[in-house]
Design goal:
The protein is of the alpha/beta class. 39% of the residues lie in helices and 13% in strands. The two termini are 42 Å apart.
């Protein structure tokens, strides 16, 4: 006998005692035939508040066409989305990471409540991507994630530009190197349509990671948002999810220690965002797979940096798509001996099959051969020491620095630090310390792109270092340590640092230290009083009370 594809929805829709459920749905257009098919939840993150997800309503329609053509009935629902880029540098940015939890929770709630037989989740901006996959891991029903794709680069002064150039332009403007009119002109050209930020920033890093993980269809992620082929990709996803349901292929068979290690290696090989660490730890926790910070360090250190992608390189996601897309990166991982080839994917292939079938555009130089890496080691490292006993993440792509020793300039939050940069008071050689921006202390663990990009724009990117208990945007590059744990309000040693203290970054030995004795550190920590919480109630207040350490993915419990 064939497997019952409606084992979940049948409970809520079949039988005389479920007449009221059918009555509700018939009133909005579902007939008996539709309600006797497998019900597929279409979890959409569409919004008009940003370009990243602006086009997802259109893609969802194509997914639904594919579901119907394959014999299922789609039911679309929506959840929240926060733009990191638009909220960056403001109080609004505190909501971004928190939205990851709300997205995962809301998708889980609707899918459990309506007992969908399968789920397709559509993502676009940074937190919708891991939020969707966290929900799929929790639900563990046949499902897949479709990434909406990258924006095309803008053109300005005869060259390709991205939103990264605008953030750096703010610093150049403050330094007097860019006029009001020039900044306005750059602003008008840098973001020319729908789609997520174009570089190997957080969105494209996570999209690549989840394609390599196997939860997104092979070859789907790097198809650009406004490419004519993206609609067909979406329709194919709708058809595919019915096949995934037929095979009863659940996320628990896809999200394994081996597939997560493949994803880490892809992030390292591509020079991707340090947010990869935070989000994969969270997904692993929801999938009940053991994953530690040391796994990231071990894998990144043995993985060569091959992708010449922004923010540290020359190219953007649309260039990677033309070069061969994520399958080409998977092929390079196999060639380097870094791929667990037997890992499963939603398309039914093993990841090794994907590597073997990958096509490389002749003459492309977006993805280097294994024999000619940009760097022999991947794009990030995990440091510990008396400033980060529970660990921190250092981004290594986009610069060649492996050590830094300098005096601290301490700020109690991002706004203070940004004001100092705009006032040109940061000096070469200093270490900018931004604390009370962690998961609980922020709350919400803001990204420091406003500060880091302004430093680069003022010409200080190669001479200063920065550390924070907050995060960095995927568009950040330079010598910077984020996710410093424990965070300041929870007793982290970063709370003890004062102006002028000598801080030492030592990547080779995986250490981040302040030159203070244990006794001095303990005495200072005992006397430190963090700023009073800004939010005592509401979603930000609840998050601050329940969120865990960045070293465990900053998840709520």
């Amino acid at each position: 006998m064939s497997r019952d594809l409606r084992s979940r929805s049948r409970v809520i829709l079949d039988g005389p005692d479920r007449a009221q459920a059918r009555a509700y749905l018939k009133g909005i257009g579902f007939d008996d035939e539709a309600l006797q098919r497998p019900i597929v939840g279409i979890a959409n993150t569409w919004t008009e508040t940003m370009p990243c997800n602006f086009h997802l309503r259109r893609l969802a329609d194509r997914v639904k066409e594919g579901v119907r053509a394959a014999g299922g009935t789609p039911m679309e629902f929506n959840t929240v989305a926060i733009s990191d880029g638009i909220t960056m540098g403001t109080e609004g940015m505190k909501t971004s990471l928190i939205s990851r939890e709300v997205i995962a929770d809301s998708i889980e709630l609707v899918a459990r409540g309506h007992m969908f037989d399968a789920v397709v989740a559509l993502s676009g901006c940074d937190k919708t991507i891991p939020g969707c996959v966290m929900a799929l891991a929790r639900l563990d029903v046949p499902s897949l994630m479709l990434y909406g794709g990258s924006i095309a680069p803008g053109r300005w002064r005869g060259r390709d530009v991205t939103i990264q150039d605008v953030f750096e332009g703010i610093g150049a403007h403050a330094a007097g190197d860019l006029s009001d009119a020039e900044l306005a002109d750059l602003e008008a050209h840098a973001s020319p349509g729908s789609g997520a930020c174009g570089g190997q920033f957080t969105a494209n890093t996570m999209a690549m990671a989840f394609e390599v993980l196997g939860i997104s269809p092979m070859g789907s992620s790097m198809v650009p948002a406004e490419d004519g082929k993206k609609g067909q990709v979406a329709e194919d996803c709708g058809r595919l999810v019915l096949d995934v349901l037929e095979r009863d292929l659940k996320p628990s068979r896809i999200i394994t220690k081996e597939s997560l290690e493949n994803s880490i290696a892809a992030g390292a090989m591509s020079g991707g965002s340090t947010n990869l660490v935070l989000h994969l730890l969270a997904v692993a926790r929801d999938a009940a797979v053991a994953l530690e910070l040391e796994d990231f360090d071990r894998i990144a250190w043995q993985t060569p940096l091959l992708c010449d992608l922004k923010p540290g390189g020359r190219y953007v996601a649309t260039d990677l798509y033309r070069a061969g897309g994520v399958p080409l990166v998977i092929r390079r991982l196999k060639e380097a001996g870094l791929l667990h080839t037997g890992a499963a994917t939603v398309t039914g292939q093993t990841i090794g099959d994907v590597a073997d079938a990958a096509e490389e555009t002749e003459g492309q130089d977006v993805v280097r051969p294994v024999s000619d890496p940009i760097k022999p080691n991947g794009g990030f490292a995990i440091l510990r020491g008396n400033l980060a006993p529970d660990g921190c993440v250092v981004k290594l792509s986009g610069h060649d620095r492996m050590e830094h020793r300098g005096p601290a300039r301490v700020f109690e939050g991002e706004e203070e630090a940004f004001a100092a940069v705009m006032a040109k008071s940061i000096q070469p050689g200093e270490v900018v310390v931004i604390r009370n921006e962690g998961p609980a202390g922020g709350p919400g663990m803001r990204e420091m792109l406003h500060v880091t990009a302004a430093l680069v724009g003022e010409g200080l990117g190669d001479s200063v270092a920065l550390l924070t208990d907050g995060r960095f945007s995927g568009a950040t590059y330079g010598f910077m340590a984020g996710h410093v744990a424990p965070e300041a309000p929870r007793g982290g040693p970063i709370a003890a640092v004062r102006d002028g203290d000598t801080i030492v970054f030592d990547v080779a030995n995986r250490e981040l230290n302040v030159e203070l004795s244990d006794g001095e550190l303990a005495e200072r920590l005992a006397g430190y009083e963090p700023p009073a919480p800004k939010y005592a109630n509401g979603v930000l207040g609840k998050y601050a009370k329940h969120v865990g350490s960045a070293a465990q993915g900053a998840v709520t419990s």
